[in-house]
Amino acid sequence: MSLVESSLHASRALRREIVGAGEPYMGSIKKGQHFRIVDLEGNQAVDTLFYRAGTLEERYSAQDTIRAQSNIYLTTGTRLLSNEGRTMLTIVADTCGRHDTLGGACSAESNTVRYALEKRHMHSCRDNFLIALARWGSQHAVGFSKRDLASNINFFMNVPVTPAGKLTFADGISSAGRYVEMRAEMDVTVLISNCPQLNNPCNAYNPTPIELMVWD
Ligand SMILES: [Zn+2]
User: How many A from CA of 11 to the centre of ligand 1?
Assistant: First the structure.
């Protein structure tokens, strides 16, 4: 695993926003801008999807991304591809070193299957995605819905795959202040659930805030 730092300084950022523990976020990134996600307190899973700006049809594709780089983990150099095979963003810096795109997002359903029936009502990434999509849709007059959710990225989440092919949710390898930075290769809309999950080690059982930064 090789770690690559960015040469961009936080003080020069065009936009800086905190996403509170367990909260959703949706926003725009222009072609050529750099977009950084900072794990402020460490061990925070950041469930993320990208859409081509102004359309519902073209979006991040885990399958195409994995196939293109012949690797299941995302890090510096990874091109995040769309379902139409185009590069949406390129990861240009990464001080965590490993990000998952197989584990998916937690939901009311997965809470009951993985943990217990009484966990069903607990806040989940899938609900966060739907809340953010509904807000964005009403502000921008677009009709996003459940079927616009695809397999997502879990930034800072450690989901090692065993030699036998088993998916495991392991303790995070991220720590306070680690970040991942991408350059947008097209205008995109980013959808984030700052994972509110309390039942597995992806958040160290303690959801925390993240910071988003954008540079021109
Ligand atoms: Zn989650």
Answer: 30
- In sign, the C-alpha dihedral spanning 127, 40, 34, 76 is negative
Q: Which residues contact 164 (CB under 8 A, 6 or more apart)?
A: none
Q: Is 87 left (phi over 0), alpha (psi -120 to 50) or beta?
A: beta
pLDDT digits (tens, 9 = 90+) for 70-92: 999 999 999 999 999 999 999 99
Q: Return residues with CB closer than 5 A to ligand 1 (ion).
A: 106, 125, 195, 197
For the chain, percent of residues with pLDDT exceeding 90: 66
Query: Can you give the pLDDT at residue 116?
Result: 59
Residue 205: partners with Cβ closer than 8 Å, 6 or more residues away: 198, 199
- DSSP per residue over the chain, as a string? ---B--S--GGG-SEEEEE-TT-EEEEEE-TT-EEEEEESSS---EEEEEEETT-SS-BB-HHHHHHHHT-SSB-TT-EEEBTTS-EEEEEEEESS--BBSSS----HHHHHHHT-GGGTTS--HHHHHHHHHHHHHHHHT----GGG----EEET---PBPTT--B--------TTEEEEEEESS-EEEEEEE----SSGGGTTS---EEEEEE-
Instruction: Provide the β-strand partners of residue 214.
Output: 15, 35
Distance from the CA of 190 to the center of ligand 1, in angstroms?
16
Q: What is the distance between the alpha carbons of residues 24 and 16, in angstroms, rounded to a whole number?
A: 16
How far apart are the C-alpha atoms of 155 and 77, rounded to whole Å? Answer: 15
